[in-house]
């Protein structure tokens, strides 16, 4: 048996006025997903344990079968693993975004966060900017490491996790001064963010971006603090050799920490213009080689949710259907072995709020050898609720999917 999880990040939503009070999953044309739902088990699963924040970090840990209450040590350390950074036990890792903030001639705290990704800045440009940041703030205790696009890391020796930092994608178009860090090292962290504007706003890279009609990537934003992660091996836990195919460091880091293989796919971007076919191909290749389990992660619906782009969110779900699920099914059939497919988001990213929520998400488990338990319904939040199937403990769903005790 081959097992494939297809994860549409942030895909679940709530009724939206401009869609006639339907959700993107309701209105998206997704014939393959709907057919697998009708023939498979459909229900709701709670991926965010009570009291925890609904992040892609905690939610994906649940989906992969790890109790976030036990295994979660922060988001950025998982990304750091993927970036090849060796953390020591007393290192604290923070995410360092390169973002775009408003350019008005007003105090830093009165500016607003425009884009947490600085127009999805290229890795090359961001690397140069991060070098300037390292030069300004790096020392024996603090080191900035360049990552992909706007996602970078800060390792702080003897840093602290007792600090309140806000993810920049949660405060788009809001005033910075309302989200000033509090707690350990808060002043130093805020000071670096504030000073970074002076370093970056007129940096040659940003003058060049302006000439090309792009927003300047004119501030850093520090958040996502955490300690070195320790996950038990996926293979030991579930008896399956696994592979991860994702464009984002968080998912790759979870995979590497869990001893799974992580495959880099050329042109995998984490947005709507990603190399969907290449990612499917990578999964099928790994399954044909020696893997029993694959996790393919698509970030696009989440990005659309944060940006408040309703139409694009619908399109990203249609692309997931047509360019991932459909191809995956064809490919799995041609491998000639029975297979199970699980389709779900990690958490909702409702267009109305432009941030994550903790609401249980709809899932499908389809088994190519057993269509007797067919739900008879398609795939949406409401249809999943209508089946009455509810899994309250998210990390237990993986055991059910993999048919292990
Ligand atoms: Zn998100």
Give an account of the 3D structure.
The protein is an alpha/beta fold. The protein folds into two domains: 2-73 and 231-402, Alkaline Phosphatase, subunit A (3-Layer(aba) Sandwich), CATH 3.40.720.10; 91-226, no CATH class. The chain is 36% helix and 19% strand. It has helices at 24-27, 31-39, 56-64, 68-71, 75-82, 123-137, 186-200, 204-211, 234-238, 249-257, 276-289, 300-307, 310-335, 381-386, 397-402, and strands at residues 2-8, 41-45, 91-101, 113-115, 142-145, 151-157, 163-164, 182-183, 219-226, 242-245, 261-263, 293-298, 339-344, 361-367, 390-391. The protein has an eight-stranded mixed beta sheet with strand order 11-10-12-1-13-14-2-15, sandwiched between helices. Strands 3, 4, 5, 6 and 9 form a five-stranded antiparallel beta sheet that branches. β10, α10 and β11 form a beta-alpha-beta unit. α5 (75-82) packs across α10 (249-257), α6 crosses α7 (186-200) and α11 (276-289) packs parallel to α13 (310-335). The chain starts with a strand and ends with a helix. Zinc ion is lined by residues 10, 56, 302, 306, 349, 356.
């Amino acid at each position: 048996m081959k097992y494939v999880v297809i994860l549409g990040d942030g895909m679940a939503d709530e009724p939206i006025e401009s869609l006639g009070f339907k959700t993107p999953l309701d209105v998206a044309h997704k014939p393959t997903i709907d057919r697998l739902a009708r023939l498979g088990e459909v229900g709701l699963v709670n991926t965010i344990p009570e009291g925890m924040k609904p992040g892609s970090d905690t939610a994906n840990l649940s989906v992969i079968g790890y109790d976030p209450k036990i295994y979660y040590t922060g988001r950025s350390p998982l990304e750091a693993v993927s970036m090849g950074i060796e953390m020591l036990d007393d290192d604290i890792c923070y995410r360092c975004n390169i973002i775009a903030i408003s350019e008005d001639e007003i105090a830093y705290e009165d500016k607003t966060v425009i884009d947490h990704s600085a127009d999805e800045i290229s890795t090359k440009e961001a690397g140069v900017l991060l070098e300037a940041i390292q030069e300004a703030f790096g020392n024996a205790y603090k080191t900035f490491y360049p990552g992909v696009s706007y996602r970078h890391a800060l390792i702080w020796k003897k840093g602290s996790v007792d600090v309140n930092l806000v993810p920049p994608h949660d405060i788009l178009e809001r005033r910075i001064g309302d989200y000033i860090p509090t707690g350990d090292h808060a002043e130093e962290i805020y000071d670096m963010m504030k000073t970074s504007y002076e370093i970056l706003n007129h940096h040659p890279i940003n003058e060049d971006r302006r000439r090309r009609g792009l927003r300047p990537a004119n501030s850093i934003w520090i958040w996502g603090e955490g300690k070195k992660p320790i996950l038990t091996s996926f293979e030991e836990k579930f008896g399956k050799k696994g592979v991860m195919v994702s464009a984002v460091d968080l998912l790759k880091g979870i995979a590497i920490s869990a001893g799974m293989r992580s495959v880099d796919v050329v042109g995998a971007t984490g947005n709507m213009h990603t190399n969907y076919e290449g990612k499917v191909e990578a999964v099928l290749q790994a399954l044909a080689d020696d893997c029993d389990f694959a996790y393919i992660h698509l970030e696009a619906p989440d990005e659309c949710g944060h940006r408040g782009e309703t139409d694009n969110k619908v399109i990203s779900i249609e692309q997931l259907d047509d360019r991932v699920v459909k191809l995956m099914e064809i490919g799995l059939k041609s491998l000639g072995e029975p297979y199970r497919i699980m389709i779900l988001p990690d958490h909702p990213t409702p267009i109305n709020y432009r941030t994550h929520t903790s609401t249980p998400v709809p899932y499908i488990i389809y088994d190519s050898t057993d269509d007797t338990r067919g739900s008879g319904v398609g795939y949406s939040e409401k249809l999943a609720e209508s089946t009455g199937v509810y899994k309250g403990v998210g990390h237990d769903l993986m055991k059910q999917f993999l048919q292990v005790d």
